[in-house]
Amino acid sequence: MKQILAALCLMFCAHAQAINLTGVPNAHDPGTLTRDGDTYFNFTTGDGIWYSTSTDLLKWSAGPAPVFSTPPVWIANKIPNFSGSYWAPDVIHMNGYYYLYYSVSTFGTSVSAIGVARSASLKNPSWTDLGIVVQSYGGGGEINAIDPALFRDYDGKVYMSYGSFFGGIGVTEINQATGKTTGNVTTILGGGGKDIEAPYITRDGDNYYLFVNRGKCCQGAASTYYVEVQRASSVTGPYSGTRTVLPNLDGKYKGPGHIGVLKQDGCNYTSIHYYDVNDNGAAKLDILKMTYDSGWPSLTRNFSIASCGGISDGPTVLRSRLSGKALAVAGASTANGALVQQQTYTGAKHQQWYVVGHGDGYYSLINANSLLGLDDYNNSTTAGTNIAQWSYWGGLGQQWRFASPAAGYQTISNRYSNLTLDVLNLSTAENAQIIQWNLTNANNQQWSLSRP
Description:
Trefoil (Acidic Fibroblast Growth Factor, subunit A), five-stranded mixed β-sheet, five-stranded antiparallel β-sheet, 35 strands
């Protein structure tokens, strides 16, 4: 028995090792880890917006060049004596591009602005700056325009939270065609100069979670940063139930900050920076795994990179195993009720879908062109019913689960009808209709998933 217990202990201890990031893990205020194809990107505070890349989340290499070789021309007019250091970038895919949000500021003041640039690719970037998203002018009660963080909700809408000290934390919806705000900003936390900054919003089930940093950053091993979380039933709050999820000091990890969540293979991989007390307080990237316990997030460093039994959030092309053709909206329509077909993939947005995990094994699928949801039309439970798109309203007929009948392929079944996406009559023809049918696991019900 002792030998068995010892063996089990050795197995557990081996499993419980914290992952080891190697290469160039330097980071301060890291953005949400983002994937383009087979490569992950970590954008971080620095001159020109520095970044690193990895193919396994473990070994990181410096990017070949920063995003900006010279500052966008608008910055000189808004931020006098700009040093060239861009703060706290974050990136999200919308409208066929990766949008990179960044902040510029005069340190210690609320003379700040958030700008945005975009590129069709991260692996082969060509950045175009689109200018100011929001700005603050130095008033003590303003929301300080720094620390942008982007979030896509189940309905496909994108929100940006931001703010630091001064007027607190704000959230605003982003127009996905322009990358700019829709106009309204809601204050959701803080104000009055309270030491709150670096917000990040994510959702699991019916709850929205707002992570923020407390204390002071940027002092190496003397930093007093720690991370709190609150939750709400709406993205705009009210948020309540404050809990500390990362203390100021845990072993070598000092002053953790700037949370982002990568939803990968059903897992929640949480990126932060910390100051390494064993390395003269150097700022480094750390990745933790987040789960939920009784409705609250829990973070651990004791995990390995492996599937959690789900699929990855983000822009996705779904191709039929039978025909090789992509799931697409007929005629690139943006209308409610437009039918869904298979088409030869051309890279068009109506052939791409945003996968958004709900945390319970179900996902919404939002068309990248129309921003409407994949829908069991009229909530039918009849085999043979056409599949269409419809404005997302959260019904069970717009929620889908994935299962893998064969390596590299998934079936996609509706939560309401329990029927499965199916290419009608085993067709390989262009524009063949997509229906729902009883699960057979035939090749016309199997789909590969890839990044655009």
